[in-house]
Amino acid sequence: MRQWWWVLIVVWLIAPSRSVLAEGAGFTVTPELPANQLGGNTGWFNLLVKPGQKQDLTVAVGNQANQAKKLELSLTNAFTQDNGQVGYEPNQDKDESAEVQLTAIGSKPIRIDLAAHQGRKVTFQVTPPANGFAGQVLGAIYVRELTESDAASASGFAVTNRFSMVVAVQLQTSEKLAPPVLHLVSVKAKPESVQATIQNAAPRLFGQLKLQTEVIPAGKTKPVLQQLTTNYAMAPNSAFHYQIAPPKGLEPGEYQLVIAATAGAYKWRFTRAFSLKKPMSAKPGTLSAQKSTDLWPWLWVLAFGVVVGGLIGWWRGRRSRR
């Protein structure tokens, strides 16, 4: 009897879990927060800096591995990824609305060698413009491993593992925050989606962005496509490509895209006409993803059947022993 209950418990525990955890980085990066830190110990730099004065950004790097490591530390600029999350990886993105970027006012990349279990402090310097800047400048200290792993797979092919860590850096010369300013820059018809380029033209990091979109044929009022997206975030002075994917495709013709965007108390509404010259196909994976989601009720039915079957077998076993 107990064995069948363990089967049910195991099914219940593993059903919601689909995440994969990367392990084995073998090094740590800890920021040393200065006195001008805003908001307490957040685990990242959130600093009120003075115009024209140098500001140190110090991190303690520790090698926890049994072998030496070569690491590269560099400053990066934050950007908005197309999945609606803020990215901090090295990039060449520079929005035309950005007046100040972290890499432009900070020191160059630094490479260090750490012996096994050795620790070291690394300091970057940033110098804000003499006249300060409006809003926020957002970026990161990006730490990546240059050492290749000696691990090999069972097939004999060498496996190279490279790890990176990020410590966010947000700077302000005033505690007054600028409101976000959203623009619909362009609308393009792609083979499998309608692509809307959305820009945050303000030096302001913000989240909880909700996008309610409709695609309406020209001259009509009823939408042929609707899409709701929530919990997006945008980096200061950045843009991203938002995809509106029709689950059943879209016929050629003239259309109007309507986007209602909200973030807290801020609201925007955009309307833009676009043309579709060729039929737009349904995005691959849309239906299969739905089928995958619909599979879970059947797994619960299967688990229930296993438990019931176990109970019947246990009951019959007891009767036969009697």
TrEMBL record:
Domain of life: Bacteria
Annotated signal peptide: 1-22
Pfam families: WxLIP_HBD, WxLIP_PGBD
WxL Interacting Protein host binding domain: residues covered: 155-278
TM segment ranges: 295-315
Coiled-coil ranges (or none): none
InterPro entries given in the database record: WxLIP_HBD, WxLIP_PGBD
Domain WxL Interacting Protein peptidoglycan binding as annotated: residue spans: 27-144
Keyword annotations: Membrane, Signal, Transmembrane, Transmembrane helix
Annotated protein name in UniProt: Cell surface protein
Species this chain originates from: Lacticaseibacillus camelliae DSM 22697 = JCM 13995
